[in-house]
């Protein structure tokens, strides 16, 4: 996941949690190499990454345990998905779902998304999901937050005009932070039509494990939708 613009190329956050179960370790050894994007710095041709033609390519950055990404890939077999997640345990959970449901329209990147964005062509992505990124609540760490000038410019470059950026958080301060920086960028237009739009999840929203935890702890989610100008 990417943090603020002065991140200096560093990845912030955990890469591994508890020890992987045997099956998850097998998936990381056998399935991940098959689905991982090609390494290196060569440009990527998103539509050519999938075994069958796709009408559009969507990108999720920081997919956690993969609940949302798996649901969207299953309900949209004609769309190609790229998921970025450096956390090993989350990647293993996603791969388990890919194997269980025989999902063929999904590629993954198990490192910093900042290494992928420069390799994508301009206007190649039809939708971007940034769901519950690390809020970095301490003031001295806020420069590590995903939403920042450099990140927004990188996303805007690869998104086609009209493409949606969907952002969800359960942290009030982060929602205000994101709104202020996205508005200031001039690259995206907030799509809210009613005062309570930000309380309403998107159509077909499957929820995530993190979101369920936030609700149990009394933190209501906020759903923000922006369109690439």
UniProtKB/TrEMBL annotation:
Which residues bind S-adenosyl-L-methionine per the record?
Answer: 60, 85, 112, 134
Looking at its record, which EC class is this enzyme? transferase
Quote one Gene Ontology molecular function term: tRNA (guanine(46)-N7)-methyltransferase activity
> Is S-adenosyl-L-methionine among this UniProt entry's keywords?
yes
Functional description taken from the UniProt entry: Catalyzes the formation of N(7)-methylguanine at position 46 (m7G46) in tRNA.
What Gene Ontology cellular component terms go with this record?
tRNA methyltransferase complex
- The gene it comes from is trmB
The source's domain of life comes to Bacteria
Q: Which family does it belong to?
A: Belongs to the class I-like SAM-binding methyltransferase superfamily. TrmB family.
Entry keyword Methyltransferase: yes
Protein name, please? tRNA (guanine-N(7)-)-methyltransferase
Catalytic reaction list: guanosine(46) in tRNA + S-adenosyl-L-methionine = N(7)-methylguanosine(46) in tRNA + S-adenosyl-L-homocysteine
UniProt keywords (A-Z) are: Methyltransferase, S-adenosyl-L-methionine, Transferase, tRNA processing
Lineage, top ranks: Bacteria, Pseudomonadati, Pseudomonadota, Alphaproteobacteria, Hyphomicrobiales
Q: Which pathway does it serve?
A: tRNA modification; N(7)-methylguanine-tRNA biosynthesis
Chain positions recorded as substrate binding sites: 138, 170, 208-211
Look up the EC number in the record and give it.
2.1.1.33
The family database entries (InterPro entries) matched by this protein are listed as: SAM-dependent_MTases_sf, tRNA_(Gua-N-7)_MeTrfase_Trmb, tRNA_methyltr_TrmB_bact
* Positions in coiled-coil regions: none
């Amino acid at each position: 996941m990417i943090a603020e613009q002065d991140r200096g190329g560093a990845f912030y956050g955990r890469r591994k949690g508890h020890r992987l179960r045997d099956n998850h370790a097998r998936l990381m050894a056998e399935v991940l190499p098959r689905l991982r994007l090609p390494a290196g710095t060569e440009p990527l041709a998103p539509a050519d990454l999938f075994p069958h033609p796709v009408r559009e390519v969507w990108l999720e950055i920081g997919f956690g345990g993969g609940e949302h990404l798996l649901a969207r890939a299953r309900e949209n077999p004609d769309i190609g998905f790229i998921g970025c997640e450096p956390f090993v345990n989350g990647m293993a959970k996603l791969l388990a779902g890919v194997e269980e449901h025989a999902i063929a329209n999904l590629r993954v990147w198990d490192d910093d998304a900042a290494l992928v964005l420069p390799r994508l062509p301009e206007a190649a992505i039809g939708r971007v999901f940034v769901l519950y990124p690390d809020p970095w609540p301490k003031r001295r760490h806020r420069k590590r937050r995903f939403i920042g000038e450099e990140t927004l410019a990188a996303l805007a470059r690869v998104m086609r005009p009209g493409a949606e950026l969907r952002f969800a958080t359960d942290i009030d301060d982060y929602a205000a932070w994101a709104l202020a920086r996205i508005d200031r960028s001039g690259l995206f237009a907030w799509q809210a039509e009613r005062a309570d739009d930000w309380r309403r999840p998107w159509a077909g929203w499957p929820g995530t494990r993190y979101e369920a935890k936030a609700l149990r702890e009394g933190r209501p989610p906020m759903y923000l939708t922006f369109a690439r100008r």
